[in-house]
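Pipeline run #58 for the internal structure catalog. This entry was flagged by the ingest filter as a single-chain record with no existing model, so it goes straight to prediction. Upstream metadata was stripped on purpose; only the residue string is passed forward. Reviewer on rotation: M.T. Logging verbosity set to normal.
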Amino acid sequence: MAEIDPWGEFKVGDYGHVFKEFGLKPFPKSVSERLSHHLFERGIVVAHRDFEKVAKCIESKKPFVNITGIASSGPYHLGHKADVDLFRFFKSKGAKNFFAVSDLDAFLSRPDSKIPDLATAKKWAVKNVADLLAFGLDEEDIYVQSNRKNKRYYEFAFELSKKITKNTFEAVYGHVDLGKVAANFLQYADILHPQLGEFAGPMPSITGIGLDQDPHARLTRDIAKRLPYKLEVPSFIYFMHQSGLQPGSKMSASHPETAVFMSDSPKDAEKKIKRAFSGGQPTIEEHRSKGGNLEIDLVFEMLKFHYPNTKELERIGKEFSSGKMLASELKQFAIDFFVPLLKGHQEKASENMKKAEKIVYG
């Protein structure tokens, strides 16, 4: 049996094996083309559970729930930006939007060495909310777990806690860590509560997650079927994790050397991009004759996740893989794109700090 650790730091590598073992469906290419967004067009969204229901809502312009969340356990990085980009895409399609800033989750599921108390998680939440506003989310799209205005959310989380046994939790996750158990009840509530009558009401819902989060999806879907509220079983789409700056790891706030953070200074961002693992050849002569390897070049992968112009990206890929563009030139192209992006984002985040504090603390 394959094991997937939602709290791990390594990427899921064998997608085919995971699809087969856990019953995921590859994301249809025909649907990706119709959705007209680079995360779909470039094969970054790889799988789904029941996305057909949400696709029908988009095509018929009917409402659906758009729910996701990120634990406030550190600064946002480019990997988080892809998650927000997906959320913004569904928001643009007329969804009812719920973005959870998960400070309770962060406190409960992270070690004390990282999040020693809830106050620390809430401080990160302020910075995270400022980032979300800078990304273009509206204040009404965002809620903070510890400051949910409607108490029905908390009642619902306790209701869900009676739907899972110790044996079920251990079978899915491989352990029973009490902090993570508590955090998971909140995650299930996050995904399902928008369908309660006190919120948006029953309707199809979509949550974008990495493959490593599938254990949460499976249990949430199971719980939805056993609740007395006639909820739609939630749909999920799965995106490839953006790699860290060195092979084998995903971008992680726990390991600053693996990630380009939205708060990185221009100097730090440039340094990280220059040090990122390259698919270029050892010498210029060899690179000109053999060309670069796009499959392993992590700078090109960063661009694949974030550079908006697909035709331009294809041109760059061809030049690098043919040997016309050197690894140093590809990295400089990335620096010229990401550094202004980060600077502009940081200015907007700074402007939104007061509003973020109000959202977190009330």
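catalog note: The domain at 256-351 is CATH 1.10.240.10 (Tyrosyl-Transfer RNA Synthetase).
catalog note: Confidence is low (pLDDT under 50) at residues 1-12.
status: ready for reviewer M.T.
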